[in-house]
Amino acid sequence: MNDTSALTLHDRTTAAGVRALRIATWNIHGTVGTDRFASPERIGRVIRELDADIVALQEVPLGGSFAPSALPVLREMTGMDAIAGPTLDTPERRYGNAILSRLPICATRALDLSFGTREARGALDVDVETDGPGTALRVVATHLGLSARERRAQIRALIAAFDTARMPVLLMGDINEWFVWGPALRMLVTHFRAAPAPRTFPSRLPVFALDRIWMHPVDRLLDVHVHSSMLARVASDHLPLVARIAREHY
């Protein structure tokens, strides 16, 4: 009888034939890198490095007179479908979240997470077919606010939305929580259970785990790691966070 006690989760799931999806989230800082140059093409090259099936992006230029949309460049460079989720939408500037997907997107929703007079925030909420009709995965990409009170209100709104879901939920994005045991994280961990949280910010020398990936049910989240290539360290002030999730229960 083989002894599997020393095997990693990756080894065990591979040996068991678990079919996995590769997922990523990344705050692209308006495509402006640590060298202060804006380059959607450089963002696209890093996304190709990730080789992910679904990518959530935050701080994405989406058009207007202030800056052109980055999505046409990213679509062309990656061959992925791209869905915009603007949180700021004026003639001068469209800006916010986006989701790139190799898999079919069958429904799209926008969640308004704005709080008082603070900067407009939201979540892009899509259903992705992982293996054809009837296999939808709910993917929520968000970028929470800078105020602790604001984040608590936003997380309550998110959790209320998840409670109505009848499918697996993947939440990812820039949570903006600096404190490991902050109230915002405690609320999310209570709902999703704990998940690995590698440091992603600042990209040159990461100190804070601002970017997160959670999965419900938690047993489908196989592993989480930071993508820290030389190009990624320059392309944005955040590093991409990458995970594998099982397509189905195992």
TrEMBL record:
Superkingdom of origin: Bacteria
Any Gene Ontology CC annotation: membrane
Alphabetized UniProt keyword annotations: Endonuclease, Exonuclease, Hydrolase, Nuclease
All copies of domain Endonuclease/exonuclease/phosphatase, residue ranges: 24-238
InterPro entries: Endo/exonu/phosph_ase_sf (IPR036691), Endo/exonuclease/phosphatase (IPR005135), GPI-anchor_lipid_remodeler (IPR051916)
One example GO MF annotation: endonuclease activity
Annotated GO biological process: GPI anchor biosynthetic process
Signal peptide region: none
TM spans (from-to): none
Protein name as it appears in the record: Endonuclease/exonuclease/phosphatase
Protein source organism: Paraburkholderia phymatum (strain DSM 17167 / CIP 108236 / LMG 21445 / STM815) (Burkholderia phymatum)
